[in-house]
Automatic annotation (TrEMBL):
It is found in: Secreted. One of its GO terms (cellular component) is extracellular region. Its main location: secreted. The keyword Ligase does not apply. Keywords: Secreted. This is Uncharacterized protein. Gene3D superfamilies: Phospholipase A2 domain (1.20.90.10). GO terms for molecular function: phospholipase A2 activity. It comes from Microdochium bolleyi. It comes from the Eukaryota. InterPro entries: PLA2_histidine, PLipase_A2_dom_sf. PROSITE patterns: PA2_HIS. The keyword Secreted applies.
Length: 415
C-alpha cells in the first residue's frame, strides 16, 4: 500500500520520522466504506466503515498511535512536531472540503465493495439510491447491466448466467438452452421427435392428414381425412339448414402428380402449371408406381444473365381464416434456394447446400388462410426455385451452377 502524500514531501526534512501515508490510505478507505452493509476493502481498525466524524477520529488515532508515539523519547522535538502535524491534518479533513471529499467517495466508490464482490447497481447521478445486486439478479448478473436471457432458459446463479431449463423435456430448450424444436415436434430426452405420428421422416397427424389417413400412404380421394378415416363431404357433420360450409379438404389437388405419361412430360400434370421462369423448366417423371416433378435451372455464366429460376404453381381454395399446414417430400440436386408462398405470404425460404438428392420431409409448415367475408378464399400456391448462390465474390460476379429439385406428396390441410 503506497502513501498518497499527505504526510511526506515538504515536511520530511523537518520531521524525518513523519510518515502518515499509511494512515492517509486508511482514511481514504474509511471514506470509501462509509455506508453500512458494504464489505470493507481492508480489515485494519483504522479503515473500518464509519461516519464522517468517526473516519476523521480514527485518522488521528492512526497518526498518533502508529507514528507519533513510536518516535523515541530522545527526539522530543520530532514527537511534538508529529503531534502538531497530526492535529493539523485532522483539522483539515474536518473542514467543508473534507466533507465534500467524504460525499464524493461515498457517491463514486464505496458502492463497489458489496459482499462477496457483488456489484452495487442502480445508483443515480446524484449518488442516491442503488443496492448490492444479489447472486441471482437476472438484470445485474456478476456486473451491473449484465442481463441473463431468461427467454432462452438462462438465469443468474452464483452471479453467472447459466442454463436452468429442462433440456431433456423443454421443447423451447431441447438439448441446450435456446434450441427450439421445429413445428410439429416435441422434446424427448434432449432430442426433438415428432409430436404425433411419423411417416418416413415426416411428422404427421394420421387423424387429419389427407395423404396419410389412419396409416402411412393412405391417400383420401376426397381430400378429407376425419378421425383417421377418409370421408366424403356429405358424410361430414354440418349445421342443419346452414349455408354452404367450407369443408376441411386438401387444398392441393393432385399433390402426388398422378397422370404423368410413362415416358414423362415437359409440363406438370393438371392442375399444376409452370409460372414465371428464366433459364429454368419443369419435368414430370414416372418411375413405376411413383410419379413426381423435377424443377430445374440452368447454370448462368455471365453477370448480365442474373438469377436463373422457375416457378411451379397451382390455384388453391381454402377456408378463410383457418389454420393450415403444408407438407411434402423433396430432394435437392446441387445447391439452390427454395421459397414457398401462399398468396402474398412466404411460408418457407431455405437455401440448401448439403448432399445432393437426399430425400427429406418438407414441413409441416403452419400458416393461416387469408381472411375473407366469402365462404371460400382462392390464392396461388407457388414453389419458387432459384440458383442464387453467391453472386458477388471479391467484387466479381461468380457463375451460378445448375440446380434441381424433386417434389412429391404435396398437401395443404387443416390440422
Amino acid at each position: 500500500m503506497t502513501s498518497n502524500g499527505c504526510g511526506s514531501g515538504a515536511l520530511r526534512k523537518y520531521v524525518p520520522q513523519l510518515s502518515f501515508g499509511h494512515c492517509c490510505d486508511m482514511h481514504d478507505y474509511c471514506y470509501d466504506n462509509c455506508a453500512s452493509g458494504r464489505v470493507e476493502k481492508c480489515t485494519e481498525p483504522y479503515c473500518s466503515p464509519g461516519q464522517f466524524e468517526r473516519c476523521n477520529s480514527v485518522f488521528y488515532d492512526c497518526m498518533h498511535e502508529t507514528v507519533c508515539e513510536r518516535i523515541p523519547w530522545y527526539h522530543p522535538i520530532d514527537r511534538v512536531n508529529c503531534e502538531a502535524a497530526a492535529v493539523f491534518y485532522t483539522g483539515v479533513v474536518m473542514t467543508s472540503l473534507g466533507g465534500d471529499a467524504f460525499k464524493d467517495a461515498t457517491k463514486q466508490r464505496c458502492g463497489a465493495y458489496c459482499r462477496s464482490g457483488a456489484p452495487f447497481c442502480g445508483m443515480g447521478e446524484d449518488g442516491a439510491g442503488g443496492s448490492c445486486a444479489s447472486t441471482t439478479d437476472n438484470s445485474n448478473c456478476g456486473e451491473c447491466g449484465q442481463e441473463c436471457d431468461t427467454g432462452r432458459g438462462f438465469a443468474c446463479r452464483g452471479s453467472k448466467c447459466v442454463c436452468t431449463a429442462d433440456v431433456f423435456n423443454d421443447s423451447s430448450n431441447c438439448g441446450a438452452c435456446g434450441n427450439k424444436c421445429p413445428f410439429g415436434t416435441k422434446c424427448s430426452r434432449g432430442s426433438c421427435v415428432c409430436a404425433a405420428d411419423t411417416c418416413g421422416n415426416l411428422c404427421v397427424n394420421k387423424q387429419r392428414h389427407p395423404r396419410n389417413c389412419g396409416s402411412c400412404g393412405t391417400v383420401c380421394a376426397t381430400g378429407i381425412c376425419w378421425d383417421g378415416v377418409c370421408k366424403r363431404p356429405e358424410d361430414l357433420p354440418t349445421p342443419s339448414g346452414s349455408a354452404p360450409t367450407c369443408l376441411p379438404t386438401d387444398a392441393v389437388k393432385n399433390g402426388g402428380f398422378n397422370g404423368i405419361p410413362l415416358l414423362g412430360a415437359s409440363v406438370p400434370p393438371s392442375p399444376w402449371s409452370i409460372g414465371d421462369s428464366k433459364f429454368g423448366g419443369i419435368d414430370a417423371r414416372r418411375v413405376g408406381p411413383l410419379s413426381f416433378v423435377s424443377l430445374h435451372t440452368s447454370g448462368t455464366t455471365s453477370p448480365t444473365d442474373g438469377i436463373a429460376f422457375v416457378q411451379l404453381v397451382q390455384d388453391i381454395t381454402m377456408c378463410p381464416g383457418k389454420a393450415y399446414e403444408l407438407t411434402g417430400t423433396i430432394s435437392m440436386g446441387n445447391k439452390g434456394n427454395l421459397r414457398i408462398a401462399v398468396g402474398n405470404k412466404v411460408i418457407f425460404n431455405k437455401f440448401y447446400d448439403d448432399a445432393p438428392f437426399q430425400n427429406r420431409a418438407l414441413g409441416p409448415l403452419p400458416f393461416t388462410a387469408p381472411a375473407s367475408d366469402d365462404t371460400f378464399v382462392s390464392v396461388r400456391l407457388v414453389f419458387y426455385l432459384d440458383n442464387n448462390l453467391i453472386p458477388i465474390r471479391f467484387g466479381l460476379a461468380v457463375p451460378q451452377s445448375a440446380t434441381n429439385l424433386v417434389l412429391d406428396d404435396v398437401s395443404i390441410y387443416q390440422p
